[in-house]
Amino acid sequence: MPVVSVSLMNLPETEAALGWAGAHCLIADRPEGRAGGMGLGFNGAQLLALAIGGCFCNDLRYIAHRRGVGIASLAVKVHLAMEGDPLIATGAEMTVQCAMADGSDPQPLIDEARESSMVGCSLPRGIPVVVSPDSRPD
User: Fold this and answer.
1) What is the number of other CB atoms lying within 10 angstroms of the CB of residue 27?
2) Per-residue confidence of the chain (138 residues) as pLDDT tens digits?
3) Of 45, 52, 49, 48, nearest to 84 (Cα)?
4) Which of 32, 34, 90, 119 could form a disulfide bond with 55, CB atoms 3.0-4.6 angstroms apart?
C-alpha cells in the first residue's frame, strides 16, 4: 500500500509553518493580522482547494499520456464552500478549460479524470484523521 508523508515545522520568527515533501516546499499561514498570521503562505482552505485542483490536473495529464494524446492548454478553478464553527468544507466546484493538441473533444479525458482523481474521489468518502503527539526526543 503506497504511503505519502509530508513534514511541517514552524518558520523561524513567524507563526507560519514550512511544509515539505522531498525537494518541494510551501508555507502555510493565516491571513495577515489573523491569529498571528502574516499572510506568508496558503491557508488551510486554499491548500485543500489546491489539492483538489492540482490532483485533477495531474490525473488529466496521466490519462492523456496513457492515451498518447496531447493537451494544448489547461486551466482549472476550484471554488470551496465552507460553513460552521469550526469552519468545514461543505462542497467544492471545479471548472475546467481544456483544449486538446489535435483539436479533439476533451470531455472523455475530463470525465475519466473526474472518476479517478485520488483527492476528488477520497473526499466524498471521507478518511479518518488520527492526531497523536510525537513522543520521540528532539
Assistant:
1) 16
2) 899 999 999 999 999 999 999 999 999 999 999 899 999 999 999 999 999 999 999 999 999 999 999 999 999 999 999 999 999 999 999 999 999 999 999 999 999 999 999 999 999 999 888 999 988 766
3) 45
4) 119
Give the C-alpha separation, 117 to 84, whole Å. 27
**Category of 97 on φ-ψ map: left (φ > 0), alpha (ψ -120 to 50) or beta:** beta
Rounded (to 5) percent helix, strand, coil in the chain: 30, 30, 40
Burial class (CB within 10 angstroms; exposed 0-12, middle 13-18, buried 19+) of 59: buried
The count of other CB atoms within 10 Å of the CB of residue 42 is: 16
pTM of the model: 0.91
Distance separating alpha carbons of residues 53 and 59, to the nearest angstrom: 10
